């Protein structure tokens, strides 16, 4: 494949569709013969895409870097939202995220940096890395260093709620998924094949 310029894309916002958009872009890239690394931060293999993406193309590598529970900083999510998550959430004090999660995310950043520099991938997606930044599992400096290490030809996509002004300023493309209306507000939980 001839050399091309890659860009930094960010899919953020409170609305549904950030991971879905990244998966769509990955499939489009595969259709063009590109090699894709899709790293999912803060997720375990419970999402329906894990039933098909690993077998869709030999040019796609899908890896997860999460635990079988979600983490939330105390006071950052309304009580009624936490009640929906029940035992699937670990609440941590502000500024004190679980150390095992911090280490897991740090290993993911290392994996992403090595993958981008290897020449093995044209598109690297770091799904939910923006949430890791939001919760303090990584610092802006760590993420900026990763972005700065991106070879010119690699397309880098970052997803997750809570994109910071620094990240938005650094990105070449930012899509803000707005939550105009969602059936979650009526008590409907995540549906298999649609949200999970």
Describe what this molecule looks like in 3D:
With 196 residues, the protein is an alpha/beta fold. The chain has a single domain, classed as P-loop containing nucleotide triphosphate hydrolases (Rossmann fold, 3-Layer(aba) Sandwich), CATH 3.40.50. Helices cover 34% and strands 20% of the residues. The chain has seven helices and eight strands, in the order βαβαββαβαβααβαβ. The strands form two sheets. The chain has a six-stranded parallel beta sheet, with helices on both faces. The longest helix is centred in the middle third of the chain and has 20 residues, at 99-118. The chain is globular and about 50 Å long.
**Overall SS class:** alpha/beta
Residues in helix, %: 25-40%
How many strand segments?
A: 8
Q: Tell me the name of the CATH homologous superfamily.
A: P-loop containing nucleotide triphosphate hydrolases
Q: Could you give the distance between the termini?
A: 34 Å
CATH topology: Rossmann fold
Identify the quaternary structure here. Answer: single chain
Classify the beta-strand content into a percent band: 15-25%
Query: Uncertain regions: pLDDT < 50 for 5+ in a row?
Result: none
Number of helices: 7
Which CATH architecture? 3-Layer(aba) Sandwich
Task: Chart the SSEs and their pairings.
Blueprint: E1 8-12, H1 18-31, E2 36-41, H2 53-56, E3 60-65, E4 70-73, H3 79-85, E5 89-92, H4 99-118, E6 123-127, H5 129-134, H6 140-148, E7 155-159, H7 165-170, E8 173-176
Summarize this entry quickly.
The protein has 196 residues and is an alpha/beta fold. The protein has helices spanning 18-31, 53-56, 79-85, 99-118, 129-134, 140-148, 165-170, and strands at residues 8-12, 36-41, 60-65, 70-73, 89-92, 123-127, 155-159, 173-176. 31% of the residues are buried.
